[in-house]
Automatic annotation (TrEMBL):
Molecular function terms, GO-annotated: metal ion binding; oxidoreductase activity; quinol-cytochrome-c reductase activity
Keyword S-adenosyl-L-methionine carried by entry: no
GO biological process, one term: mitochondrial electron transport, ubiquinol to cytochrome c
Compartment annotation: Mitochondrion inner membrane
Cofactor: heme; heme b
The protein's name: Cytochrome b
Membrane topology of this protein: Multi-pass membrane protein
InterPro entries in the cross-refs: Cyt_b/b6_C, Cyt_b/b6_C_sf, Cyt_b/b6_N, Cytb/b6-like_sf, Cytochrome_b, Cytochrome_b_C_euk/bac, Cytochrome_b_N_euk/bac, Di-haem_cyt_TM
Cytochrome b/b6 C-terminal region profile domain mapped to chain residues: 209-367
């Protein structure tokens, strides 16, 4: 106890993980933030070990993935942990954001804005990683998504050629994507530290949304036990997926080496991008689709400035509570539509659900 209080480094750790004053009414929905931190470390460590065997060359990258899966000791496990870990990371992040929306965490402006920045950086990192295996879906996803920048007036084509490193997706593109995919997780880690700093500066919220300064408990053992229990349950679920259904989130097209002359029947991103992909393809105009795609995530930045309710928690706003669950259902429907082919009735439904997605944000602001 004396050492923990006297040593400067141990004192910082103790104040963050042991003696941190926390509201006494936090539920298990507050576990997902710490789970995200653990999964970020899982992604960084598994990615580092995979990078030892990966070659960022269009002639070798697909073969190095096969080499890792077949020849490297436990390489198959590392790969499925890293691939499925990305899906689990976004699942946890979306639940974490949903909890923040429901309980009014956007009131803590700096914490919320840094969290949205982490979401954007995570999306960029995940997209770059999806391209690296250089399978059919990787190649065509890179071609389609990078081409969206050409919609920017005047400089769009120049930006696309700079990202490609030429006039088509090729070896310079893969090399750049690998470099950024390696660097960005450490930028995310820095942002997570900043996020935690802002969180500890203001303190955690609570389900009721009231000030809980008069009723707080130390983080350990009240919430450290909850976190450990949450880690155990979720890791059992995660490892069951990795061992029993390791390729459940992977597209079969990506098990075929890339071929610029053969276009897949249905190009689609990973499941955690499908809601934004539906919004993109639902707008007839290319520039309009790109703007809607960007705004589908950027809109989260505006919540702290427009949602100025007297009580933080949605619990006290019955209409907003029902709108929130309607928003969740609509988001799930957008994700489902994104995995469907672009034909009737899915195209029309995508337009309707995309309109509802943005309209619900306006409804939140007007209540």
């Amino acid at each position: 106890m004396v050492i923990r209080k006297s040593d400067h480094l141990l004192k910082i750790i103790s104040n963050s993980l042991v003696d941190l004053a926390s509201p006494s009414s936090l539920s298990y929905f507050w576990n997902f933030g710490s789970l995200l931190g653990v999964f970020l470390m899982v992604q960084i460590l598994s990615g580092l070990f995979l990078a030892f065997h990966f070659s960022g060359d269009v002639m070798l990258s697909f073969d190095t993935i096969i080499h890792m899966m077949r020849d490297v000791n436990n390489g198959w496990l590392l790969r499925v942990i890293h691939a499925n870990g990305a899906s689990m990371f976004f699942l946890l992040m979306y639940i974490h954001i949903g909890r923040g929306l429901y309980y009014g965490s956007y009131r803590f402006k700096k914490t919320w804005l840094s969290g949205v920045t982490i979401l954007l950086l995570s999306m960029a990192t995940a997209f770059l990683g999806y391209v690296l295996p250089w399978g059919q879906m990787s190649f065509w996803a890179a071609t389609v998504i990078t081409n969206l920048l050409s919609a920017i007036p005047y400089v769009g084509t120049l930006m696309v050629e700079w990202i490609w490193g030429g006039f088509a997706v090729g070896n310079p593109t893969l090399t750049r994507f690998f470099a950024f995919h390696f660097i960005l997780p450490f930028v995310i880690l820095f942002m997570v530290i900043l996020h935690l700093f802002f969180l500890h500066e203001t303190g955690s919220g609570n389900p009721m949304g009231f000030s809980s300064n008069c009723d707080k408990v130390s983080f350990h053992p009240y919430y450290s036990i909850k976190d450990v229990y949450g880690f155990g349950c979720f890791f059992i679920f995660f490892m069951m997926i990795c061992i029993m259904s390791p390729y459940i989130f992977m597209d079969v097209e990506n098990f075929i080496s890339s071929d610029p002359l053969v276009t897949p029947v249905h190009i689609q991103p990973e499941w955690y991008f499908l809601f934004a992909y539906t919004i993109l393809r639902s707008i007839p105009s290319k520039i309009g689709g790109v703007v809607a795609l960007v705004m589908s995530v950027i809109v989260l930045y505006f919540l702290p400035f427009f949602l100025e309710h007297k009580f933080r928690s949605t619990y006290f706003y019955y209409i907003m509570k029902y709108l929130f669950w309607l928003f969740i259902i609509n988001w799930l429907l957008l994700t489902w539509i994104g995995a469907c082919v672009v034909e009737y009735p899915f195209s029309e439904l995508g337009m309707v659900f995309s309109f509802i997605y943005f309209y619900l944000y306006i409804m939140f602001w007007s209540i």
